[in-house]
Structure formats: structure tokens, C-alpha cells
Design goal:
The structure holds two protein chains of two kinds.
Chain A: H1 10-18, H2 22-48, H3 70-81, H4 89-106, H5 114-133, H6 149-175, H7 180-194, H8 198-212, H9 221-246, H10 250-258, H11 263-293, E1 303-304, H12 305-313, H13 322-355
Chain B: H1 2-18, H2 29-37, E1 40-43, E2 54-55, E3 61-62, H3 64-77, E4 83-86, H4 93-98, H5 113-117, E5 121-123, E6 128-130, E7 132-137, E8 151-156, H6 160-171, E9 176-181, H7 184-192, E10 198-202, H8 203-213, E11 220-222, E12 230-232, E13 235-237, H9 241-259, H10 267-272, H11 277-282, H12 299-307, H13 310-317
Parallel strand pairs in B: 1-4, 8-9, 8-10
Antiparallel strand pairs in B: 2-3, 5-13, 6-12, 7-10, 7-11
Classes of the chains: A mainly alpha, B alpha/beta.
Chain lengths: 356, 346
């Protein structure tokens, strides 16, 4: 509010903007009433008339009952952990926390050196894998087909971004290479993968590859999917990076040469930092889209957040409360994606400061 | 994992080399794989499918199809938990079977000609029949579709149900008006609002709906007559007839047990004192049940002890013991007015 010019008070401003003419006033009142009514409906249904506890599920069937959050109370462990064994949920929780912590820590500028980032990610992923799989730690073994829910989504997402980002950069560099062979291979791969829907790529990795490849090359389904998904991500990200490269004037390369820097030195010290800056908004966009696209894995039978949500209301007792379940899942997605978006804003601001 | 695929690849290769004519005593390659792996790989679902494949509050699989997988696991490995249920989407189930990700698909799967021939699958005897059914208000006092004369039937547009109902009522010479709606929710809305006398859909779906979306469930009734029957059966890879035998006899033993009155609670009694030679054979008191399939003689007894007979499995997942309360109807024994029967146990 402090930004408003001091001569015009809040009320005055409202009057000027919303009630300038009688028709304006009418429209304002109408829209405000409509919004208030909608908000009231939502609050009334979602909070006031809602049933909260699993024990009270019978109340949900009463005529004036609102949202039935009992399903979340009763089934949230299924939604969050999928098929992971019930008594071992602390492991899935800790593993998810480890991944989230890794992501948060690597967003802090202090970690932005190659060695720190790499050690951080290795530590984060090792923690996740050891906790989830369990057998190296002497815990009960849980095979990857039982991994599910939110911790699976987080793992898929961070593996894909982690593997896809360097692959994307590599492809972008190959595409700009002076060697025709490298350039040709990169363009072909990028154009090929980008011309296929994600679903086709994943279906091929999950279903067709086991028929074609010999056993020792197959690995678990989840790894095949992560690799295929990363490749998909990398091909798009390579184009994002390419845009970043194209924004850099030739003078920058020449300046590097003039300073006596070698090709890789000038790339690392002068070009890439600028490429990242140019590519940042599009990259954040890619990352957010990837987080949401992990939901596609439901089609190839991974028990992700959406699949476990569907399983949560997919039983006779709870089938009527799909709306509540989807709202719960939507809130989870919203929380993560908003955080990613806010972080992107922070990065942009920070890079602006660097410019001065 | 690699061991598993290795054996399956070997099994598939062996099966294709040896061709169709396997000798009478040949052991199933899939069975051998399962026994050496110590785990049976069954199909699950990427979510829930009412009554057939669901997940309970303890994050464990349950449902009719899951119980059949567990029964098969007991038959082969002696322990209902020695299986791995692989979550699969509908589209994925057959490729997953072909690639060896699962040993058998028990997943509300209809037996069709295309799947049997083009897809290279083999089906077991059907264990469930689901088809179009009608729901009406109790106050109409109707007990069969043929009494619907002059009534209005609501149905979702563009489904096979629409055609099936029309054909059936026409054949029965029942005069009626068909009202179709684009969405299922609209059909239900119209039925609830009294715009139609009957609601037509897939039987098990109506039961789920009735149990959960009707405040006055008691004042509606699902008519017993099924207007169509889709046989639901287990699917296996072509080329391992002995494996099909095992799955068939697993299902047959469950149904036979119901026919003979053997339940999970009286199985010990029956074993100690078999009332007739068939029961003695079924429960492994007399030899012959196991050897011919490459299993233990007591496999059926262990299976019934752990899982119950077919009636118990049905009641637990779809019938009285479940939220769905689905009548047996067609899925009853032939002697009780249904179509379930077994081959002869000699």
C-alpha cells in the first residue's frame, strides 16, 4: 500500500477504479457478489460442513454433509506411499525428505560449485535408494515395483532433471560442434525424440525394450523409464540451451580468444554463465512441466501419486469421494510447483543483481 | 530380476523350439521358472478396479483377482504371500505377459477371439461372467426385464450396453422407450429424478453405484437377468499348455470345492474323514491331484485352507462380505442356477 501516491487514499482509489461510472459500479458489485458467493460455497462445503475424521465416515452420507475429508484421514498413507509396505513407511518418508532436502540445498548459491553439487546429489540419491530399497542397510528389502506415491514422484522428477540437464547441455554443445558427425547425430536424436509423444517414448522403454534387449541389458523397469524420460527431457532442454547460445554475440567468443583463453576455458568462464542466464526462464518452465508430466507414468503401471489417489477412492467404501482425493492431490502438486516457480523468481532477481 | 528373465527367455525359447507337441509328462516351463524363482508374478492395476483389484488401508492388494493369484501361489509354492503383484495398466497387461514381466494375467480380462488368436494368448476356463443388467425401483414390483412393458430405460449413449438392451427387449417383445445420455452421471441423474423406470449398465458397476451413490439404496433392486455375458478368464502366453492346465485346475478346484461343500473351516474335518472319493482326491487324501500337474498332492487342500473355496472368495470381494453385495446370479454353480462348472475330477 505504501507504493500508492499519498494524495489518493485507498478508498478513493477503489472508487476511481471500480465505481467510475454507474455501469462500472454495477459490474463491480455483480462480480464481487459472484466471487463472494463462490468463496462461500467453497468454504461451506470444504470447511464448515466437512467431515474430518476417518471414524466419522458414516456422517459423510448424510444429506447435508459437505466435503468428506475422512477419506484423506483414512487413506492418506496409500496416497502418499503407494504400495510401499505399511510398517516401513518411515523409510519412504525419510527418503522423500532426503530428496526434498537435496533439492532445497542445491538451490542455495553456496553449493554452486561442481564438486559440492555432485557430492550433494550423490549423497541425496544414495540416501534415497538405501532407505527405499533397504537391503544394503540390513532393512527389509522393498523392490522398486512397490515404490509409489509422492516419494516415487519426487524421485522420478529429480532423477530426470538431474540426468537430463547435463545430457541436454551435451546435446546442445554437440549440435553447435564444428564436427559434422557430432552435429548430425545430435540433430537427428533431438528431432527424432521430439517428434514422439512422451507417452510413446515411455511405453517403448517400459514394454518394448524388454522384448528386444537381452536380460543383462534390461535392468528394472523404473530405471528404463528414468533413462527414457531423461532423454526426452534432454532433447527439449538442448533446444532451450541452443536458444541461450544463439543470444550470445560473436564478440564474446572473440573476447575470450583475445584474452588468450582456450576453447573450453572461454566456454566455461564466459559463454556458459551467460547461456544459463538467457535460458533460465525457459528452463524453469521445463522443470515445472516435467514435475507435472511425471503423472504420465501411471499409464505404464508405475504407482505414482495419481495412481495411488485413484486406488484410494477405488474401493466400495470410498468411491463417492473422488473429488476430495483429487483436491488433496492438486494441493500437493500446487505446493511443489509454486515453490519451484518462486525459486525461479529468486534466481532471476539474483542474476539481475549480478548484472550491476 | 535378471535371473527371472533369463529363465523366462529360456522357457519361451524351449517352448517355441519344441513346438506344439509336448509329451504327456512334460513339466510346464513357466511352472519351473516360478518354482526356481520362488515367487509368482501376477498382474495388478495402476489404481483400483472395484472388487477385482483394489488396495486396502494397509497398502496391500486385495480383490477377487488378487485372491485368485494368491490361490495360485499357494497351489504352486505353498504360501499365499510368495507372489509379486506387478501394477499394470490395461494397455500394458498383454505386452507385460509376453515379455515375462508377469507369469499370468488375472485382471478382469474378457476372453475374445482377437486376444486368443492374434495376440498369441491362451485363456483359462472363465471364472466370472459380467454383463448388461437393469436396475429398477422396488416399488414397481418388477422381478424380470420382460415385465418392463411400456417402461423407459435410461442408458449411456454409444455403448455396447445400449444395443444389448435394445436387442434383448426386442427379442422378448417388450415395448419400451430408450433414453440415452452422453455421460454416466447424467444417466444416473435422470434415473434418480424419475425420468426413467430402469437404468441399464454393466452389472458389477451398477452394484458399486447402488452401494455408494444412492442414499435410498434399499428402494432399488438390480434385476437378476443378465442381458449379455462376457466371460472373464485368466490369460497366459501361448505355447505352455501345462501351465494352462495348472491355472485351469486351480480355478476348477476352487469351484469343485464349493460344489462339494468343502470350505476353509471344514477342510481339516473333510481331510480326516472324506465323505466320498472325489473329496478324497481333491484334498490329496488319495494320490493323483498333484503329480499330474507337477505339484504336491495336497496343493488344493492348502489352497482352500488359505483362501477358501470359490464362494468364500466371491463373497469376500464382491458378495455379502463386501461393500458391493453383488448377487451370484450367473456366477453361481450350475446346480444353483449359474453357469460355473468344472471339468470332471477323475
Amino acid at each position: 500500500m505504501s507504493a500508492a501516491p499519498p494524495t489518493i487514499g485507498g478508498l478513493e482509489r477503489l472508487k476511481r477504479r471500480a465505481f467510475h461510472k454507474p455501469l462500472d459500479g454495477l459490474v463491480t458489485l455483480f462480480v464481487a457478489a459472484l466471487l463472494a458467493w463462490l468463496a462461500w460455497q467453497a468454504i461451506d462445503w470444504g470447511l464448515l460442513r466437512a467431515v474430518w475424521r476417518a471414524e466419522d465416515a458414516a456422517l459423510c452420507r448424510e444429506a447435508n454433509a459437505g466435503a468428506c475429508w475422512s477419506i484423506i484421514d483414512a487413506r492418506h498413507r496409500l496416497i502418499l506411499f503407494g504400495l510401499y509396505p505399511f510398517d516401513e513407511h518411515w523409510r519412504s518418508t525419510s527418503a522423500a525428505v532426503a530428496i526434498i532436502a537435496t533439492v532445497i540445498l542445491s538451490c542455495i548459491p553456496w553449493f554452486w560449485t561442481a564438486r559440492r553439487l555432485i557430492s550433494l546429489w550423490i549423497a541425496g540419491f544414495a540416501t534415497y535408494y538405501l532407505l527405499m530399497e533397504g537391503s544394503p542397510l540390513g532393512l527389509e528389502q522393498v523392490t522398486t515395483d512397490k515404490w509409489g506415491g509422492l516419494s516415487l514422484v519426487l524421485f522420478l522428477f529429480s532423477s530426470v532433471v538431474l540426468l537430463g540437464m547435463p545430457m541436454g547441455l551435451g546435446l546442445a554443445l554437440m549440435r553447435r560442434s564444428r564436427l559434422p558427425m557430432l552435429r548430425w547425430v545430435a540433430s537427428l536424436l533431438i528431432d527424432f525424440i521430439r517428434s514422439l509423444p512422451l507417452l510413446t517414448t515411455l511405453f517403448t522403454a517400459a514394454v518394448v525394450v524388454p522384448i528386444l534387449l537381452p536380460d543383462w541389458l534390461q535392468g528394472d523397469k523404473i530405471w528404463r523409464i528414468i533413462i527414457a524420460f531423461s532423454l526426452f527431457f534432454a532433447c527439449y532442454q538442448a533446444e532451450v540451451f541452443r536458444g541461450g547460445f544463439q543470444a550470445i554475440p560473436n564478440g564474446q567468443y572473440e573476447a575470450g580468444k583475445a584474452l588468450g583463453l582456450g576453447k573450453w576455458q572461454s566456454l566455461g568462464l564466459i559463454i556458459l554463465p551467460q547461456v544459463f542466464r538467457h535460458a533460465l526462464p525457459a528452463t524453469i518452465n521445463m522443470v515445472v512441466v516435467t514435475f507435472k508430466e511425471t503423472a504420465v507414468v501411471i499409464i505404464i503401471g508405475l504407482f505414482d501419486l495419481l495412481a495411488s489417489a485413484q486406488a484410494a477412492f477405488g474401493t466400495g467404501d470410498w468411491v463417492a469421494y473422488y473429488m476430495e482425493t483429487y483436491i488433496f492431490v492438486a494441493l500437493i502438486y500446487w505446493a511443489f510447483i509454486t515453490s519451484l516457480g518462486r525459486y525461479g523468481e529468486f534466481l532471476k532477481d539474483r542474476m539481475k543483481q549480478d548484472d550491476h | 530380476m535378471t535371473m527371472k528373465r533369463g529363465w523366462i527367455a529360456a522357457a519361451v525359447a524351449a517352448a517355441s523350439l519344441s513346438g506344439i507337441g509336448t509329451s504327456a509328462v512334460a513339466e510346464s516351463a513357466t511352472l519351473k521358472t516360478v518354482q526356481e524363482r520362488g515367487t509368482l508374478l501376477c498382474s495388478g492395476h495402476n489404481g483400483s478396479y472395484f472388487g477385482f483389484v483394489e488396495v486396502n488401508d494397509k497398502n496391500e492388494w486385495k480383490g477377487l483377482d488378487i485372491d485368485l493369484c494368491r490361490a495360485l501361489t499357494v497351489a504352486i509354492l505353498g504360501d499365499p504371500d510368495k507372489n509379486q503383484i506387478v501394477p499394470l495398466s490395461w494397455a500394458q497387461r498383454f505386452p507385460a505377459l509376453q515379455s515375462g514381466d508377469v507369469d499370468v494375467v488375472i485382471k478382469a480380462t474378457g476372453w475374445t477371439m482377437g486376444r486368443d488368436t492374434e495376440l498369441g494368448l491362451q485363456f483359462s476356463i472363465p471364472y466370472f461372467f459380467g454383463g448388461a443388467q437393469l436396475m429398477v425401483r422396488k416399488e414397481l414390483g418388477i422381478s424380470s426385464a420382460s415385465e418392463l412393458g411400456g417402461g423407459t430405460v435410461c442408458v449411456a449413449a454409444g455403448t455396447t450396453i445400449e444395443r444389448i438392451v435394445a436387442d434383448h427387449l426386442k427379442a422378448e417383445n417388450v415395448e419400451h422407450t430408450m433414453v440415452s445420455f452422453e455421460k454416466t452421471a447424467e444417466v444416473i441423474g435422470a434415473y434418480k429424478a424419475g425420468r426413467c423406470d430402469a437404468y441399464a449398465a454393466w452389472g458389477p458397476s451398477i452394484a458399486v453405484l447402488l452401494a455408494n451413490q444412492f442414499e435410498d439404496a434399499d428402494s432399488h433392486v438390480i434385476l437378476e437377468d443378465k442381458l449379455s455375458a462376457e466371460p472373464i478368464a485368466a490369460a497366459m502366453r501361448q505355447g505352455d499348455e501345462d501351465w494352462v492346465d495348472i491355472v485351469n485346475w486351480m480355478l476348477a478346484a476352487l469351484i469343485k470345492a464349493e460344489e462339494l461343500g468343502v470350505t476353509s473351516s471344514n477342510v481339516d474335518e473333510m481331510t480326516a474323514n472324506p465323505p466320498n472319493p472325489t473329496v478324497a482326491r481333491l484334498l490329496g487324501v488319495d494320490a493323483g491331484m498333484g503329480e499330474r500337474l507337477g505339484l504336491r498332492d495336497t496343493w488344493a487342500r492348502e489352497m482352500i485352507t488359505a483362501m477358501g473355496n470359490f464362494a468364500e472368495i466371491y463373497d469376500r470381494n464382491l458378495g455379502e462380505g463386501s461393500p458391493y453385495k453383488l448377487e451370484r446370479g450367473l456366477n453361481n454353480l450350475w446346480s444353483n442356477g449359474g453357469v460355473l462348472y468344472t471339468p470332471i475330477l477323475d
